[in-house]
Amino acid sequence: MSHSLHRCGNADSFHDDYVMLIMTSPDRANDPDVKGKMQEAWDVLSSFAADLTNYGAVKGGGRHRKGIKEFKEEVKFLIHAVFTDRDVMKACLKEIKNRDLGLSVTVSGHFDEVKGACQEIGLVPHTVQYSLGVVGKTELLPDEKVLEITTMCGHAMVSPNLLLHLVKKIEAGKLTHAEAALELSRQCECGIFNPARAERLLRQMV
What we know:
Layout: E1 18-23, H1 32-46, E2 52-57, H2 68-74, E3 78-83, H3 86-99, E4 104-108, H4 111-120, H5 144-150, H6 160-171, H7 177-186, H8 195-205
Antiparallel strand pairs: 1-3, 1-4, 2-3
Helix pairs in contact: 1-2, 3-4, 7-8
């Protein structure tokens, strides 16, 4: 889940950002039993669709490009889902736990919130990963406010220059905050970019 670990921002900025990854081995993705389990996982997510700000697979874009039904039919070895509400994320995680699908599930977000959600539904995390920040010539990095948005694409496909261009369009009244957030989300191929958080951060920038 390392591609979702390096989202920038202080603790308060992550109150609406929880990324869930559901995964099987790529070598077993075409096994009929495993394929059925992955489809069942999509069924669980579909019951929370109204509360998902984004979702996707290993490639193919996010919810702006395909619906859950299409992703379910494709059945790739990896599923992403982005929640804005901790309680909804917890309810989804509990449903997956109760179904005992035998799949690997990872949730990233503010550590205390994610750990607390797991404890509340009787889950003990198998592994915990921390981001220790960025080292090196950090003076070459974009502004922190820019990084809060661009790092939501863990594969670095959201350009800081595009973001600044869209900010200028918002300031000129040519684009809304929501439209700019969606345009940024379209750049993320795996669907872990959070357009709801991006819209909120854009409103703070502009």
